[in-house]
Amino acid sequence: MTSLAQSLMARMKKQRDLMQALAEHCKSISVRVTSRDQSVSAEVTASGEMTGLWLGPSATRLGADALAKLIVETAQAASRLALERQNFLIKEFNTRMAELQETPLTCWDGSTFVPRQLPGIPVPEQDPPIGENPAPTGPRRRL
Asked: I need a labelling partner for 137 at 20 to 30 A (CA). Which of 70, 87, 109, 121 fits?
């Protein structure tokens, strides 16, 4: 038989593994976007870091201002896609973490303990995606 502590430790290991997987997947996000006219390609990570910039032959026909604008727009498009991918991963993470939190823990005598949602802790579906700043709903609290 397992004790409540062993059951809790097993859950914590699964949560740790889930967090490590999220971190690894987020680090591996890289998006490359090419402008419609094929003049510019930009590669960006989920953190917004530009890791590559390629200029096609048609880039030389653009003026400096037009080229600069196209580079920024292309990099921003890549950054938006990378952020969308990261938000998808975080949503999946929150869903799986919530499932783990709700999994009954086994006590030494074979009975189970079912955790409940604590008041004041948001349910994952209510969390805004990263990059969005929701309006405050109440007074700020210091932790």
From this structure: 87
Q: 126 in helix, strand or coil?
A: helix
| pLDDT tens track for 115-142 | 775 566 565 555 555 555 555 454 444 4
Give the domain ranges of the chain: 4-102
CATH architecture for the domain at 4-102: 2-Layer Sandwich (3.30)
Give the Cβ contact number of residue 112 at 10 Å.
Answer: 11
In single-letter form, the type of residue at position 61 comes to R
| Helix, strand or coil, per DSSP, at residue 60 | helix
Handedness of CA 77, 79, 84, 89 (dihedral sign): positive
The identity of residue 142, as a single letter, is R
Q: pTM for this one?
A: 0.69
49, 78 in Cβ contact below 8 A?
A: no
